[in-house]
Design goal:
It is built from 39 helices and 5 strands. By secondary structure, it is mainly α. The termini are far apart.
Length: 716
């Protein structure tokens, strides 16, 4: 506890029965004004003349304590106390010094003696309140603070009461008391610290930062204030400032682990996930029983694609804290995210059994049941969750899908209408509109269906390539002879949005003789020249060293995940630009193209109703229909070339009957036949068992509603 020194000084002067000497009065005034060095010189000069002046000893003791010289302060105050044991002010000062040194029992004794000498010494009650607060006796602390305030305004009593109100989430009351305390003692670092915490809790970060800075200005080693600043600057995305604060805190032994966590949070916010992993590991090496860095470590590892290590990080923590619900839940969610659905379900079942009233576990199990095709169980679980939480949007969506699957469109419509009354995420809102469109489609209300589908697509991310008119340099590059076939040349799977190329990719992934890559969408995309094209480079001069570098740029990420040479690699490219033909012919000769084809009008309608890959939101139907036409032109550009070899695949035919209709595709890929497996089955029905594509020719239903868009397709 600290106190307002100017207030103490003024009170002492007013209570003194004897007039001070002129020198002592001047020193007191300098002290009150904060000119401590001058005041100290005056006190010492006075004591040279009057070595037993109780008041000078008392005030110099207060000043030396104020300047951090606690041992000398205690010596001076003890001398004053020996000369005038009846003075409450000296007992009070001794209590303050002993409090600051951590000797709470001695401080309590001095405060109590001060009150015995003068029951009206409110500051003693403030000190006793602080001691009670440290001891966890909130009731006694509040009583002392309020008694102190009845005697008059006291900065420490106001601060203590404000801290209690902050604990009770009475933010306005806390700020009122702490603000007044700061007015009375503007240079008290602990009051500024409490004020900063209150402002931060209320969300007024600018004021919080100022209070923490004020605290550090007075007491640069006040680590709690630096922690507060570090957290606020991180939240404000001022990463360099936050990092500087956390690095300073690394030198404080008891805060080293927290500082590593903070540095990890900075790195994670800047997407420096390798650095984040290192910092979280450092924090856990100091204190392995920290839940937050354990979760953050696993999350960062997952962002790096190191999912097995992420699960291991969770397991290492849970071996020490097996009952940590939050970490168990985070682990189960990660398992769900990486597709280990059965393991995720086992985790959530454990949590549900531990706490039958855990609605999060119940809802996750409903979602997992649906993802694993246990549709009736999912519907039943969702119904149970909705009895307890009737406004759970995800559960309403599960039940809506179940009703649509059963053909109960009226029931589905009621559930969808209920969703309209809830605050929904963007994704949930899009699903609501999409399902409404499907219900209209099944009823033959195609105009209403089209409008609902368009509404569902509104605001979706669209990051398609520009697809410029092929450059003259490309034409020149395509006239060059093609060199010897590259042994590791891949098969590229191409198709426009709505062509269901992703479903053909899933079918091919079932074939044991193929390695099928489907990692060019999502948060962690493979990086090479197919998703970061450099057209001018491919069409310009290309040395042998350049060619080798391009091949390494393609193969390097594959080796990283264990895909070696000699394998037939099928690489699904959601984005294709005709200029990439120069890359294929000049650097990757021997590459083959599989083009997944549908009637472009069917492709457009399916894109509209079912979406496509991430980053291909159909946000503007007329404009994107023209883009779809350009995309087809780019895919079929230079079809007459012998190199690269091409095979055009009727997507509907192959997906409807892979064995009978996929023979030509199998031969092209060098395998015996296409045998549908788990991937094909999983992609054949959508979430909740709903269809994933319209049948061939369904576009005719929309001939009038989408006439303008179809005309843009047909005009090319």
């Amino acid at each position: 506890m600290t106190s307002s020194r100017s207030g103490d000084i003024a009170a002492h002067a007013a209570a003194s029965p004897d007039p001070f000497s002129h020198m002592l009065k001047d020193s007191i005034e300098l002290h009150r004004l904060g000119r401590l060095e001058e005041a100290e010189q005056g006190y010492r000069e006075h004591l040279q003349a009057e070595p037993n002046d109780v008041d000078a000893l008392h005030l110099l003791g207060l000043l030396r304590h104020q300047r951090g010289a606690s041992e000398e302060a205690e010596t001076l105050l003890a001398r004053a106390h020996a000369l005038a044991p009846e003075k409450a002010g000296i007992e009070l000062a001794l209590g303050t010094v002993r409090f600051q040194s951590g000797d709470l029992d001695a401080a309590r004794a001095h405060y109590e003696k001060a009150l015995a000498l003068d029951p009206n010494v409110g500051t003693a009650h403030a000190g006793l309140g602080q001691i009670a607060l440290i001891g966890g006796d909130r009731a006694a602390a509040e009583q002392h603070f309020r008694v102190a305030l009845r005697a008059g305004e006291d900065a420490q009593a106001l601060s203590g009461l404000g801290s209690l109100l902050l604990e009770r989430e009475d933010l306005e009351g806390a700020l009122r008391h702490l603000g007044r305390a700061a007015d009375l003692a503007p240079n008290d670092p602990m009051i500024q610290l409490a004020l900063g915490r209150a402002f931060a809790r209320r969300g007024t970060e600018t004021f919080a930062e100022k209070a923490f800075e004020n605290a550090l200005r007075v007491k640069p080693d006040l680590t709690a204030a630096r922690q507060g600043l570090a957290s606020l600057t991180l939240k404000a995305k001022r990463f360099r400032e936050a990092e500087s604060h956390y690095r300073t805190l690394l030198s404080v032994p008891e805060l080293e682990a927290a500082a590593h966590v903070g540095l990890g949070d900075v790195a994670r916010a800047e997407e420096r996930f390798d650095d984040a992993v290192a910092e979280y590991n450092a924090a856990l090496a100091i204190d392995p029983l920290q839940s937050a860095p354990a979760r953050a470590l696993a999350w960062s590892l997952s962002r790096l694609g190191r999912n097995d290590e992420a699960i291991a990080a969770y397991d290492a923590y849970l071996a020490l804290a097996p009952g940590d619900h939050d970490v168990l839940a985070a682990r189960a969610d990660l398992l769900m995210f990486i597709g280990r659905l059965a393991d995720a379900a086992a985790g959530w079942r454990t949590l549900a059994e531990t706490n039958p009233g855990d609605m999060q576990a119940a809802s996750r199990l409903a979602m997992l049941d649906e993802h694993m095709g246990q549709l009736e169980s999912a519907d039943a679980r969702a119904a149970l969750v909705l009895r307890a939480t009737p406004r759970d949007a995800e559960m309403l969506l599960i039940r809506a899908r179940a009703a649509m699957r059963r053909g109960d469109d009226d029931g589905a419509r009621r559930l969808i209408d209920a969703l309209a009354e809830l605050p929904l995420t963007e994704g949930q809102q899009r699903l609501r509109w999409n399902y409404l469109g499907r219900i209209h489609d099944r009823a033959g209300n195609v105009a209403e269906a089209a409008r609902a589908f368009e509404e569902a697509q509104r605001g979706t991310q669209a990051s398609m390539p520009a697809l410029d008119t092929p450059r003259p340099e490309l034409e020149l590059a395509l006239t060059e002879p093609v060199g010897e076939a590259w042994a590791d040349a891949p098969v590229l799977l191409l198709g426009t949005p709505g062509s269901v190329g992703e479903r053909v990719a899933a079918l091919l992934a079932d074939q044991p003789g193929l390695v099928v890559l489907r990692d060019r969408i999502g948060a962690l995309q493979r990086v090479d020249d197919f998703n970061q094209p450099r057209f001018a480079h491919y069409a310009g001069e290309l040395s042998e060293a350049d060619r080798l570098a391009l091949r390494e740029r393609y193969l390097g990420p594959l080796r990283h995940v264990g895909i070696g040479p000699g394998r037939t690699v099928v690489d699904w490219l959601p984005r294709w630009d005709a200029h990439l033909l120069a890359l294929v012919r000049r650097a990757y000769p021997g590459t083959r193209l599989v083009i997944v084809e549908r009637d472009p009008r069917d492709a457009l309608v399916n894109w509209l109703a079912f979406g496509w890959a991430r980053g291909f939101g159909l946000a503007d139907l007329p404009a994107f229909s023209a883009w779809l036409a350009r995309a087809r032109d780019h895919i079929h550009y230079a079809d007459a070339l012998d190199e690269p070899q091409r095979l055009v695949v009727d997507a509907d035919a192959v997906l409807d009957d892979p064995v009978a209709n996929g023979a030509e595709l199998a031969r092209f890929l060098g395998i015996d036949a296409l045998e549908p497996g788990a991937n094909h089955a999983a992609m054949s029905r959508g979430l909740g068992g709903l269809p994933v594509r319209f049948p061939r020719g369904h576009w005719q239903w929309y001939a009038e509603a989408l006439a303008e868009s179809f005309a843009r397709l047909e005009s090319r």
